[in-house]
Specification:
Layout lengths: L1 E3 L17 H10 L13 E3 L4 H8 L8 H5 L6 H4 L2 H19 L3 H5 L4 E4 L17 E4 L22 H6 L28 E2 L6 H9 L7
Parallel strand pairs: 1-2, 2-3, 3-4, 4-5
Length: about 220
């Protein structure tokens, strides 16, 4: 059975036609699931509705540069020039959310999160995940099982675990060791076989139909 915890950090975000819309779509699906229970004591799993994509999407609108004010408030001085989305989501989404589910509910602490399911669906996915999520089941679009991986994004502010950045911005950068991707050192991974679950990116029937009718993206 699935018990959905209270929605936290809900950002206004359209997901119907978005590549990362599964984080919101799954939340709605579970809320309406016949397997959802009202009594957390008998739940087998807890779904944590964390809108990672929505946070970053709002963060970089209308352009990534406008979010420098938020970066300047992230992990001390110097972040205005060195902050990344990993820094921002750690301080302004992941850390408050962890505080919420560990202080306001007893269920995470009961199992250290082992019976919790948490979506990490944006770009580098669970590479961003705090090491405190190590016991939880993480949903991701990436099945990257390589140990101690390097970020492979072409969008620099989405980069995680840049060792040079860790050194140059000691006062503000989230360290690789704080993430699953870098902890424990040399053995961290963005996806753990047998623990995490890879799910396909979100696509609506309409999008699939258009793709087959107009394979080169040219629709009338």
């Amino acid at each position: 059975m699935v018990n959905s915890t209270d929605a936290v950090f809900f950002f206004s975000c359209r997901f119907e036609d978005n590549l990362y819309g599964a984080e919101a779509a799954l939340h709605e699906l579970f809320l309406d699931s016949p397997h959802r229970v009202d009594d957390p004591a008998i739940a087998d799993f807890f779904f944590v509705p964390m809108y990672h994509f929505c946070f970053i999407s709002r963060l970089q609108q209308p352009t990534p540069g406008h979010s420098q004010e938020l970066f300047a408030q992230t992990r001390g001085a110097g972040c205005k020039s060195g902050g990344s989305h990993a820094d921002a989501v750690f301080q302004h989404l992941f850390t408050p959310m962890l505080r919420h589910i560990t202080h306001d509910y007893p269920w995470w602490n009961r199992s250290n999160g082992a019976d919790h399911i948490v979506p990490f669906l944006h770009d580098e996915g669970a590479c961003y995940a705090p090491k405190e999520f190590a016991a939880a089941t993480l949903l991701t679009h990436w099945g990257r099982g390589d140990v101690d991986p390097e970020s492979c994004t072409a969008f620099q502010v989405h980069s995680f675990g840049d060792r040079e950045r860790d050194e140059n911005f000691k006062g503000c950068a989230v360290k690789r060791a704080d993430m699953l991707a870098g902890s424990p050192p040399g053995r961290g991974a963005c996806y753990r076989r047998g623990v995490d679950i890879v799910i396909p990116p979100w696509r609506t029937p309409k999008q699939v139909r258009i793709k087959f009718l107009f394979p080169y993206g040219q629709s009338n």
